[in-house]
Amino acid sequence: MSRMKETDYTFAVARIRANEARLIGASELSSLASAPGYTECARRLREKGYEIEGTDYNAALEKRLREMWALIGEILPDPAQFNSILIRNDFHNLKVCLKALVTGKSPEGLYAAPCVYAPEEIRACVYARDNANLPPELQHADRSAYRILSKTGFAQLADTVIDRAALEHAIEMAKTADHPVMLRLAQTEAALTGIKVLYRCIRTGKAKSFMERAVCANDFYDKADIIAAADSGMEAFLDHVRRTDFAAGADALTESTAAYEKYADDRRLALLSAGKSETFGISALVGYYFAVRAEVLDLRILLSGKLNGLPDDTIRERMRMLYV
Amino acid sequence: MDLGVFFIVLGAVLAAGLSGMGSAKGTSLVGQAAAGVVSEDPSKFGKVLILQVLPATQGLYGLLIAILTLSFTGIMGSGNVGYTWQQGLAICAADLPMAIVGYFSAVQQAKAAAAGVGIVAKKPNESGKAITFAALVETYAILALLVSVLALNGLTKLFA
Question: What's the number of CA atoms in the CB half-sphere (13 Å) around residue A31?
Answer without folding.
Answer: 7
